[in-house]
Amino acid sequence: MARQFVFAALCAGVLVAAPQAGLGIAVAGGFAVADGRAGARLHDATTPATGDCSLACTPSVPTTTIAGEALIFLGQYESSGCDGTPTYDWDFGDGTPHSLGPSPRHVYTAGGDYHWSLTVGLGGGSCTSGATIRVVSTLPPITNPWPFAYVVPTSAHKRGFNGTRWLTDLVLTNPGLADAVAAVYFMKGGQDNSAAAAHPVVVPLRHSVKLVDVVGATFLQSDASGAILVGCDAPLIVTSRTYDDTGAGSYGQGVEGAPLAQAIGAGQTGWLTQLAQSADPTTGFRTNLGLACASGECPAVDVAFYRHDGTWIASTTVALAPFGFQQLDKVLATLTPDAIDGGYALVAVPPLASPVAVRFFAYASVIDNTTGDPINVPAILAPSGPE
């Protein structure tokens, strides 16, 4: 079966889509191929031939990595009519000794742009290919993440009500044509997270990277809940699943990472719908309310609860630390003993006298008391008019 390729130009380590599929773009004696399933390969277009021997270098090397991490350089080639055993010569471009292995591991110790090259010899002929790899040495603070930032407003590695045990898997998907570097931060509940450490993740082009049990395995938190902020140097698709894994299988809710630009600001109001509470805690539903601050300052958030017919139930105020998180479990039960079905809440920070850049996210988790199965309800800004 013929493989389908998307061809792209390689310029300073960045892949740019070519105008037509099926056309290679010459770049410094070669052309790049972005394979939707296998990643990027660089083909040498200046292959010398000896007799009937035809040789082309097709190494596979990521375009981006992180300083201190071991990276595999795949020494691939294509040949026709060439006899003998191939030889390899890798120059990593950082002044370290060359490697003569077919697929060596290499660690860049400092950030920067490095031009690597591979020379393959076989049957009296040789070919050489190379490209630039970007090495990231420092990650931005949570207070000033990379230009593309997303917030997953809920995550956990924690025991819950009725014997539940909640875990979160985080998935980063790169739809672009170049590798991306993400900085992942955990905004732990009940504290100021302005100094939260970043966990680096390289997301290769057209790949998804799953961080299983991100709170427990990545951030080593054994009994915690919070929000997750993902900063990236390129656009990503950020998704997650928070689930209970105490049964024979698992069940849970998908929660998308919302772009930081979609946060609720001062003077804006978010609506949370589908809220429910049973008068009997062993049947029906319960509602948890979550708030995540995505800025260095978040004045107290006002929350007003209503029945489905607009009748006011009660109001509360929730204090949030910088880049902080709070979840109010069974929040309706703290306000009224009545059963609620189809209620809603309004969440807002009043307009401020001083120009503070407030950004926060809100959600409700409506949970079946019998099974523990939840649904996620993100806060929505009321539409201002027809599109």
Set out the fold topology:
Blueprint: E1 6-11, E2 14-17, E3 26-27, E4 30-35, E5 39-44, E6 49-50, E7 53-57, E8 64-66, E9 70-72, E10 77-80, E11 87-91, E12 105-107, E13 112-122, E14 125-136, E15 148-159, E16 165-173, E17 180-188, E18 199-203, E19 208-211, H1 214-218, E20 224-232, E21 237-244, E22 251-256, E23 258-259, E24 269-277, E25 285-293, E26 301-306, E27 312-318, E28 325-328, E29 340-348, E30 360-368, E31 374-378, E32 380-381
Parallel strand pairs: 8-14
Antiparallel strand pairs: 1-2, 1-4, 3-4, 4-5, 6-7, 7-10, 9-12, 11-13, 13-14, 15-16, 15-20, 15-23, 16-19, 16-21, 17-18, 17-20, 21-22, 24-29, 24-32, 25-28, 25-30, 26-27, 26-29, 30-31
Explain the overall architecture.
It is built from one helix and 32 strands. The radius of gyration is 26 Å and the shape is elongated. With 387 residues, it is mostly beta strands. 39% of the residues are buried.
> Rg, please?
26 Å
The residue ranges in which pLDDT falls below 50 over 5 or more consecutive positions are 1-41
Helical content band: under 10%
Summarize the biggest pleated sheet: 9 strands, antiparallel
Supply the helix-strand structural class: mainly beta
> Based on DSSP secondary structure assignment, what is the total number of beta strands?
32
In whole angstroms, the N-to-C terminal distance is 46 Å
Shape: elongated
- Share of residues in strands: over 45%
Mean pLDDT: 84
